[in-house]
Amino acid sequence: MLEVHCSGTPYEIGHQHGTVAKDQVAGSLAFYENQFQETCSMNWEAVRKEAEKYIEPLTKLSPRHVQELQGLADGAGVDLVDIVALNVRTEITFSLYTSVPSTSIQTDGCTSAAYRQPNGEVLLAQNWDWQPQQAPNLIVCHIFQPGTDLPNISMVTEAGVIGKIGINSAGVGTLLNAIRARGVDSTKLPIHLALRTALESKSAREAADKLYKIGTAGSGHILVADESEAIGLECTSIGIKEINFDSDGTLPHTNHLLLDHPGVDEPGWLPDSKDRIKRISELLKEKLASTGIDHSSFFELFQDEQGYPTSINRAETSPGQGTVTLFNINMDLARRRATVTVGRPINWTERIELSPWLMCDNS
């Protein structure tokens, strides 16, 4: 997996991302152009029109991030609106789903969990499942922002997307579960920029407070944690509700809302989402009752294949069809480190260690 090291001003950070990962950004754009056309009969010009609606609100909400998006576009040799489209693809999907309810929508599915160990330290992990055609366009992005009080960030993301799944030098980690609910509000923060905002925070509570204040444009579950606390943020365009650790110190989530969200329309999407939340909860309880859970054994839960191929460790239903686990990330937040396992957790192809607290300016 390509690793990109970015530092400097927001524009410079974006420009380095776009320049070094130029081929992968082009790959992401091609993948989503095809994805929108195949699943929504929406051509890229229509996608760009939807994305344009977010530029002005984002310039007011988060000017630094718009500068980074502009730098990324310039580095990759594409238009700003193309890069914005990648970063608001969740919201564009849900906007279309709201206006044309019969639309067949596909988005990434995942299984995530946080666990607070008996010593109070928090572990955070997830499998990220998506179509294998997007695997070559995944990158690890390291971000160092000198002259600011913002923490360093190391995250796994789709090339061209500036906020995703990762860990920062303050020991804050973020995970994402896609949620398919109707409704979008372009005056609020898109889910992927909400993830970036969380990764620029120094505690889980600070991240949650920021997102409560701004709100999210679309739906998703953001699991944000630090070394002692984890907060599950079920986000919709209407509002955000939080889930905390249960009595066993566990907090699992998949791809459906667990809390009641009045006024939110969430039709069924992935039937296996309810099976996976049940299964990951069972595995957590079983492991706690036997050997206990540490950073190493936490990963083992995500190798589970009960319900194959739509299991926690997901496989394609047939060659080229359906989604598959593309990577696992397993974080030890007290030690401010994470292990990225590329590929399905039982037959992975590469391992990458993330330690953003060791990062320095490479420019």
Folded structure, characterized:
Residues 116-346 form the Peptidase C45 hydrolase domain. The chain has helices spanning 10-20, 22-40, 44-61, 63-76, 80-87, 89-99, 191-199, 204-214, 272-289, 295-301, and strands at 2-7, 109-116, 122-130, 138-144, 153-158, 165-168, 173-177, 220-225, 230-235, 240-243, 250-253, 324-332, 337-342, 350-354. The longest helix is centred in the N-terminal third of the chain and has 19 residues, at 22-40. Helix 1 packs parallel to helix 4 and helix 3 (44-61) runs antiparallel to helix 4. The chain is globular, with a radius of gyration of 19 Å. With 363 residues, it is an alpha+beta fold. It folds into two domains: 6-99, Arc Repressor Mutant, subunit A (Orthogonal Bundle), CATH 1.10.10; 109-358, Penicillin V Acylase, Chain A (4-Layer Sandwich). Helices cover 35% and strands 23% of the residues. It has ten helices and 14 strands. A hairpin with a 6-residue loop joins strand 5 (153-158) and strand 6 (165-168). Strands 1-4-5-6-7-8-9-10 form an eight-stranded mixed beta sheet. The chain has a six-stranded antiparallel beta sheet with strand order 11-2-3-12-13-14, covered by helices on one side.
CATH topology of the largest domain: Penicillin V Acylase, Chain A
β-strand percent reads 15-25%
Q: Could you tell me the radius of gyration in angstroms?
A: 19 Å
Give the overall shape: globular
Quantity of strands, as a count: 14
Terminus-to-terminus distance: 21 Å
User: Structural class, from secondary structure content?
Assistant: alpha+beta
CATH superfamily of the largest domain: Penicillin V Acylase, Chain A
| CATH architecture identity of the largest domain | 4-Layer Sandwich
Mean pLDDT: 94
Listing every helix as H and every strand as E from the N terminus to the C terminus, the arrangement reads EHHHHHHEEEEEEHHEEEEHHEEE
Q: What is the CATH top level name of the largest domain?
A: Alpha Beta
The tally of domains stands at: 2
Instruction: Give a short account of the largest sheet.
Output: 8 strands, mixed
Treating each run of at least 4 consecutive H or I residues as one helix, how many helices? 10
